[in-house]
Recover the amino acids of this structure.
Protein backbone atom coordinates (compact mmCIF):
# COMPACT_ATOMS: atom_id res chain seq x y z
CA UNK A 1 0.00 0.00 0.00
CA UNK A 2 2.72 2.38 0.92
CA UNK A 3 4.38 1.71 -2.41
CA UNK A 4 1.32 2.97 -4.20
CA UNK A 5 1.35 6.17 -2.19
CA UNK A 6 5.01 6.72 -3.01
CA UNK A 7 4.33 6.27 -6.71
CA UNK A 8 1.51 8.75 -6.43
CA UNK A 9 3.73 11.34 -4.81
CA UNK A 10 6.60 10.84 -7.22
CA UNK A 11 4.40 10.87 -10.31
CA UNK A 12 4.08 14.64 -10.24
CA UNK A 13 7.85 15.04 -10.22
CA UNK A 14 8.57 12.56 -12.99
CA UNK A 15 8.95 13.71 -16.55
CA UNK A 16 6.23 12.73 -18.99
CA UNK A 17 8.69 12.24 -21.82
CA UNK A 18 11.70 10.66 -20.17
CA UNK A 19 14.82 11.17 -22.30
CA UNK A 20 15.60 7.92 -24.10
CA UNK A 21 19.22 6.84 -24.26
CA UNK A 22 21.33 3.79 -23.50
CA UNK A 23 24.58 3.16 -21.69
CA UNK A 24 27.50 3.93 -23.98
CA UNK A 25 25.63 6.52 -26.03
CA UNK A 26 27.35 9.76 -26.91
CA UNK A 27 24.95 12.45 -25.81
CA UNK A 28 24.52 16.20 -25.58
CA UNK A 29 22.90 17.13 -22.28
CA UNK A 30 21.15 20.49 -22.38
CA UNK A 31 20.90 22.03 -18.93
CA UNK A 32 19.16 25.24 -17.98
CA UNK A 33 21.35 27.59 -16.03
CA UNK A 34 20.20 30.68 -14.17
CA UNK A 35 22.63 33.57 -14.44
CA UNK A 36 21.20 36.32 -12.33
CA UNK A 37 17.88 36.92 -14.02
CA UNK A 38 18.64 35.37 -17.35
CA UNK A 39 18.26 31.73 -18.14
CA UNK A 40 20.49 30.10 -20.65
CA UNK A 41 21.19 26.60 -21.91
CA UNK A 42 24.49 24.91 -21.36
CA UNK A 43 25.46 21.80 -23.26
CA UNK A 44 27.61 19.04 -21.83
CA UNK A 45 28.53 16.33 -24.30
CA UNK A 46 30.12 12.99 -23.53
CA UNK A 47 29.49 9.28 -23.07
CA UNK A 48 26.84 7.89 -20.75
CA UNK A 49 28.74 5.54 -18.47
CA UNK A 50 26.18 4.79 -15.76
CA UNK A 51 22.59 5.07 -14.65
CA UNK A 52 21.65 4.78 -11.01
CA UNK A 53 18.71 5.14 -8.69
CA UNK A 54 15.02 4.85 -9.35
CA UNK A 55 11.94 7.03 -9.38
CA UNK A 56 12.60 10.74 -8.94
CA UNK A 57 16.10 10.01 -7.73
CA UNK A 58 17.30 8.42 -10.97
CA UNK A 59 20.64 9.84 -12.11
CA UNK A 60 22.92 9.31 -15.06
CA UNK A 61 26.63 9.91 -15.41
CA UNK A 62 28.25 11.46 -18.48
CA UNK A 63 31.99 11.29 -19.00
CA UNK A 64 34.15 13.25 -21.39
CA UNK A 65 37.78 14.23 -21.77
CA UNK A 66 38.51 17.94 -21.37
CA UNK A 67 42.06 19.06 -22.07
CA UNK A 68 43.43 15.61 -21.38
CA UNK A 69 41.59 15.37 -18.07
CA UNK A 70 38.59 13.10 -17.55
CA UNK A 71 35.47 15.00 -16.46
CA UNK A 72 32.33 13.32 -15.20
CA UNK A 73 29.02 14.97 -14.51
CA UNK A 74 26.07 13.35 -12.85
CA UNK A 75 22.61 14.59 -13.84
CA UNK A 76 19.23 13.93 -12.23
CA UNK A 77 17.20 12.36 -15.04
CA UNK A 78 13.89 13.90 -14.02
CA UNK A 79 15.14 17.35 -13.04
CA UNK A 80 13.38 20.18 -14.88
CA UNK A 81 16.81 21.76 -15.31
CA UNK A 82 17.86 18.94 -17.62
CA UNK A 83 16.02 20.25 -20.64
CA UNK A 84 17.03 17.77 -23.30
CA UNK A 85 19.27 14.79 -23.88
CA UNK A 86 20.30 14.38 -27.50
CA UNK A 87 21.73 11.06 -28.63
CA UNK A 88 24.54 11.58 -31.13
CA UNK A 89 25.86 8.07 -31.49
CA UNK A 90 25.22 4.66 -29.97
CA UNK A 91 27.84 2.07 -29.11
CA UNK A 92 28.08 -1.65 -28.59
CA UNK A 93 28.48 -2.22 -24.86
CA UNK A 94 28.10 -5.34 -22.81
CA UNK A 95 27.71 -3.97 -19.31
CA UNK A 96 25.58 -1.46 -17.44
CA UNK A 97 28.43 0.50 -15.88
CA UNK A 98 31.33 1.57 -18.07
CA UNK A 99 33.66 2.46 -15.21
CA UNK A 100 36.51 0.68 -17.01
CA UNK A 101 36.70 3.72 -19.29
CA UNK A 102 38.18 5.66 -16.38
CA UNK A 103 41.35 3.64 -16.58
CA UNK A 104 41.74 4.08 -20.31
CA UNK A 105 43.53 6.87 -22.14
CA UNK A 106 43.54 8.05 -25.71
CA UNK A 107 42.39 5.72 -28.45
CA UNK A 108 41.36 3.00 -26.02
CA UNK A 109 38.47 5.16 -24.82
CA UNK A 110 36.66 4.68 -28.12
CA UNK A 111 33.62 2.39 -28.18
CA UNK A 112 32.48 0.42 -31.21
CA UNK A 113 29.54 2.05 -32.93
CA UNK A 114 26.19 0.37 -33.01
CA UNK A 115 24.01 1.08 -36.04
CA UNK A 116 20.39 1.44 -35.15
CA UNK A 117 17.96 -0.38 -37.34
CA UNK B 1 -7.66 26.17 17.34
CA UNK B 2 -4.20 24.70 17.00
CA UNK B 3 -4.24 22.85 13.76
CA UNK B 4 -3.35 19.24 14.38
CA UNK B 5 -3.83 15.92 12.68
CA UNK B 6 -2.79 12.31 13.12
CA UNK B 7 -1.31 10.05 10.48
CA UNK B 8 1.23 7.52 9.38
CA UNK B 9 4.72 8.05 8.10
CA UNK B 10 4.87 6.53 4.63
CA UNK B 11 8.51 7.15 3.78
CA UNK B 12 10.93 9.57 2.24
CA UNK B 13 11.49 10.57 -1.36
CA UNK B 14 12.48 13.56 -3.41
CA UNK B 15 10.33 15.93 -5.43
CA UNK B 16 11.18 18.75 -7.79
CA UNK B 17 9.80 22.24 -7.33
CA UNK B 18 8.82 24.34 -10.31
CA UNK B 19 12.15 26.13 -10.39
CA UNK B 20 13.95 22.81 -10.61
CA UNK B 21 15.27 22.48 -7.07
CA UNK B 22 15.07 19.01 -5.61
CA UNK B 23 13.50 18.82 -2.15
CA UNK B 24 13.86 15.84 0.19
CA UNK B 25 10.42 15.14 1.62
CA UNK B 26 8.73 12.81 4.06
CA UNK B 27 5.32 11.62 2.96
CA UNK B 28 2.73 11.51 5.75
CA UNK B 29 -0.63 9.88 5.18
CA UNK B 30 -2.68 12.12 7.44
CA UNK B 31 -6.30 11.78 8.29
CA UNK B 32 -9.17 11.85 7.86
CA UNK B 33 -9.46 11.95 11.63
CA UNK B 34 -12.58 11.87 13.76
CA UNK B 35 -13.09 14.25 16.63
CA UNK B 36 -13.77 11.87 19.50
CA UNK B 37 -14.03 14.30 22.36
CA UNK B 38 -13.76 17.97 23.14
CA UNK B 39 -12.18 18.87 26.45
CA UNK B 40 -13.51 22.04 28.05
CA UNK B 41 -12.34 24.24 30.87
CA UNK B 42 -15.50 23.67 32.91
CA UNK B 43 -15.61 19.90 32.64
CA UNK B 44 -12.00 18.80 32.28
CA UNK B 45 -10.02 21.77 33.50
CA UNK B 46 -8.30 22.34 30.16
CA UNK B 47 -9.18 22.97 26.54
CA UNK B 48 -8.28 20.35 23.97
CA UNK B 49 -9.60 18.32 21.10
CA UNK B 50 -9.21 14.56 20.94
CA UNK B 51 -8.67 13.01 17.52
CA UNK B 52 -8.68 9.41 16.40
CA UNK B 53 -6.97 7.98 13.33
CA UNK B 54 -7.61 4.75 11.44
CA UNK B 55 -10.42 2.30 12.22
CA UNK B 56 -9.75 -0.69 14.39
CA UNK B 57 -11.81 -3.88 14.07
CA UNK B 58 -14.43 -4.05 16.77
CA UNK B 59 -13.20 -7.47 17.85
CA UNK B 60 -9.83 -5.95 18.76
CA UNK B 61 -11.28 -3.03 20.68
CA UNK B 62 -12.19 -3.39 24.30
CA UNK B 63 -15.51 -2.24 25.72
CA UNK B 64 -14.34 1.15 26.83
CA UNK B 65 -12.85 1.83 23.40
CA UNK B 66 -16.08 0.79 21.72
CA UNK B 67 -18.17 2.76 24.18
CA UNK B 68 -16.04 5.85 23.63
CA UNK B 69 -17.21 6.09 20.03
CA UNK B 70 -20.64 4.51 20.35
CA UNK B 71 -23.77 5.98 18.90
CA UNK B 72 -25.98 7.97 21.21
CA UNK B 73 -29.03 5.84 20.55
CA UNK B 74 -27.22 2.52 20.85
CA UNK B 75 -28.54 -0.01 23.29
CA UNK B 76 -25.44 0.17 25.42
CA UNK B 77 -25.80 3.87 25.98
CA UNK B 78 -27.30 3.98 29.44
CA UNK B 79 -29.42 6.87 30.43
CA UNK B 80 -29.17 7.43 34.12
CA UNK B 81 -31.18 9.96 36.02
CA UNK B 82 -29.41 13.25 36.45
CA UNK B 83 -26.52 12.27 34.19
CA UNK B 84 -26.40 14.05 30.90
CA UNK B 85 -25.54 11.86 27.93
CA UNK B 86 -22.15 12.88 26.52
CA UNK B 87 -21.83 13.40 22.83
CA UNK B 88 -20.15 10.51 20.99
CA UNK B 89 -18.39 10.45 17.65
CA UNK B 90 -20.48 7.62 16.18
CA UNK B 91 -17.64 5.93 14.28
CA UNK B 92 -15.58 2.75 14.44
CA UNK B 93 -13.11 2.37 17.32
CA UNK B 94 -9.91 4.20 16.51
CA UNK B 95 -6.42 2.80 16.52
CA UNK B 96 -4.42 5.92 17.30
CA UNK B 97 -5.88 8.55 19.62
CA UNK B 98 -4.19 11.76 20.67
CA UNK B 99 -5.24 15.14 22.03
CA UNK B 100 -4.24 18.57 20.82
CA UNK B 101 -4.29 21.30 23.43
CA UNK B 102 -6.04 24.57 22.78
CA UNK B 103 -9.47 25.98 22.29
CA UNK B 104 -11.50 24.60 19.44
CA UNK B 105 -14.71 25.32 17.62
CA UNK B 106 -15.07 21.80 16.22
CA UNK B 107 -17.67 19.41 17.57
CA UNK B 108 -17.61 15.75 18.46
CA UNK B 109 -18.16 13.65 15.37
CA UNK B 110 -16.59 16.18 13.00
CA UNK B 111 -13.88 15.13 10.58
CA UNK B 112 -10.43 16.65 10.32
CA UNK B 113 -8.63 16.37 7.00
CA UNK B 114 -5.34 17.61 5.62
CA UNK B 115 -7.26 20.48 4.01
CA UNK B 116 -6.80 22.21 7.37
CA UNK B 117 -3.11 22.49 6.64
CA UNK B 118 -3.65 24.46 3.44
CA UNK B 119 -1.61 27.62 3.83
CA UNK B 120 0.32 26.39 6.85
CA UNK B 121 4.03 27.14 6.41
CA UNK B 122 5.63 24.80 8.92
CA UNK B 123 4.65 21.98 11.25
CA UNK B 124 5.98 20.08 14.26
CA UNK B 125 5.89 16.31 13.95
CA UNK B 126 5.83 14.10 17.04
CA UNK B 127 6.40 10.36 16.99
CA UNK B 128 8.17 7.52 18.74
CA UNK B 129 11.71 7.25 17.44
CA UNK B 130 13.24 4.03 16.17
CA UNK B 131 14.48 1.88 19.04
CA UNK B 132 18.21 1.20 18.96
CA UNK B 133 18.43 -1.00 22.05
CA UNK B 134 21.43 -0.71 24.33
CA UNK B 135 23.69 1.63 22.39
CA UNK B 136 27.25 2.70 23.03
CA UNK B 137 28.37 6.27 23.56
CA UNK B 138 29.44 6.81 19.95
CA UNK B 139 25.98 6.13 18.59
CA UNK B 140 24.05 7.54 21.55
CA UNK B 141 25.97 10.71 22.33
CA UNK B 142 28.12 11.22 19.24
CA UNK B 143 31.35 10.66 21.14
CA UNK B 144 34.45 10.35 18.97
CA UNK B 145 35.65 7.04 20.40
CA UNK B 146 39.33 6.31 20.53
CA UNK B 147 42.11 5.76 18.03
CA UNK B 148 42.42 2.70 15.85
CA UNK B 149 46.13 2.28 16.59
CA UNK B 150 48.86 3.80 18.77
CA UNK B 151 48.45 1.31 21.58
CA UNK B 152 44.68 1.50 21.93
CA UNK B 153 43.51 -1.95 22.95
CA UNK B 154 39.92 -3.17 22.72
CA UNK B 155 38.47 0.22 23.63
CA UNK B 156 38.14 1.79 20.18
CA UNK B 157 34.48 2.69 20.66
CA UNK B 158 34.66 3.52 24.35
CA UNK B 159 34.37 6.85 26.09
CA UNK B 160 37.54 8.24 27.69
CA UNK B 161 37.50 9.04 31.37
CA UNK B 162 34.28 9.53 33.30
CA UNK B 163 35.53 12.09 35.77
CA UNK B 164 38.08 12.95 38.46
CA UNK B 165 39.94 10.62 40.83
CA UNK B 166 40.09 10.43 44.63
CA UNK B 167 38.22 13.66 44.99
CA UNK B 168 35.24 13.36 44.54
CA UNK B 169 35.80 9.58 44.06
CA UNK B 170 32.44 9.18 42.36
CA UNK B 171 30.95 9.83 38.96
CA UNK B 172 28.80 12.92 38.70
CA UNK B 173 25.15 12.50 37.85
CA UNK B 174 24.24 13.11 34.25
CA UNK B 175 27.51 11.69 32.89
CA UNK B 176 26.84 10.57 29.32
CA UNK B 177 27.26 6.84 29.09
CA UNK B 178 26.06 3.86 27.10
CA UNK B 179 22.46 2.83 27.62
CA UNK B 180 19.07 2.48 26.05
CA UNK B 181 18.66 4.71 23.02
CA UNK B 182 15.62 5.44 20.88
CA UNK B 183 12.03 4.27 21.25
CA UNK B 184 11.09 7.54 22.93
CA UNK B 185 8.82 10.43 22.08
CA UNK B 186 10.62 12.82 19.76
CA UNK B 187 9.37 16.04 18.22
CA UNK B 188 10.95 17.45 15.09
CA UNK B 189 10.10 21.11 14.97
CA UNK B 190 9.59 23.57 12.19
CA UNK B 191 9.37 21.28 9.19
CA UNK B 192 8.40 23.17 6.07
CA UNK B 193 5.19 22.02 4.41
CA UNK B 194 5.97 21.30 0.78
CA UNK B 195 2.60 20.10 -0.45
CA UNK B 196 -0.89 19.31 0.79
CA UNK B 197 -2.72 16.66 -1.22
CA UNK B 198 -6.33 16.77 -0.11
CA UNK B 199 -7.50 14.15 -2.57
CA UNK B 200 -5.18 11.42 -1.30
CA UNK B 201 -4.90 12.73 2.28
CA UNK B 202 -1.18 13.27 2.00
CA UNK B 203 1.09 15.79 3.61
CA UNK B 204 4.60 16.37 2.29
CA UNK B 205 7.05 17.93 4.71
CA UNK B 206 10.64 18.84 4.04
CA UNK B 207 13.18 16.71 5.87
CA UNK B 208 13.09 13.74 8.16
CA UNK B 209 10.46 12.73 10.68
CA UNK B 210 11.04 10.50 13.74
CA UNK B 211 10.03 6.85 13.70
CA UNK B 212 9.98 3.97 11.21
CA UNK B 213 8.03 3.93 7.96
CA UNK B 214 4.47 2.99 8.79
CA UNK B 215 4.71 4.43 12.29
CA UNK B 216 2.06 6.72 13.73
CA UNK B 217 2.82 10.43 13.84
CA UNK B 218 0.98 13.46 15.12
CA UNK B 219 1.37 16.67 13.19
CA UNK B 220 0.55 20.13 14.44
CA UNK B 221 1.09 23.63 13.20
CA UNK B 222 4.32 24.94 14.63
CA UNK B 223 4.30 27.69 17.22
CA UNK B 224 7.90 28.54 16.53
CA UNK B 225 7.92 29.90 12.99
CA UNK B 226 11.31 31.01 11.90
Amino acid sequence: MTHKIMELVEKSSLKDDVPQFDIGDSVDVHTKILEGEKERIQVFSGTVIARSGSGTREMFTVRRIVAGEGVERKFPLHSPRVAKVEVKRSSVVRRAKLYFLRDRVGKAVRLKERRRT
Amino acid sequence: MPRGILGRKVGMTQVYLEDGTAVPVTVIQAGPCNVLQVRTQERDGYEAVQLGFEDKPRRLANRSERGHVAKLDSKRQKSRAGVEAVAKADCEPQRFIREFRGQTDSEVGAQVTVAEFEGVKAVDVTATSKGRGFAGVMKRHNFSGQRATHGVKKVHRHAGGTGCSASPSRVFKGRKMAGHYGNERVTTRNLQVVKVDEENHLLLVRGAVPGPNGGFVSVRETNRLR
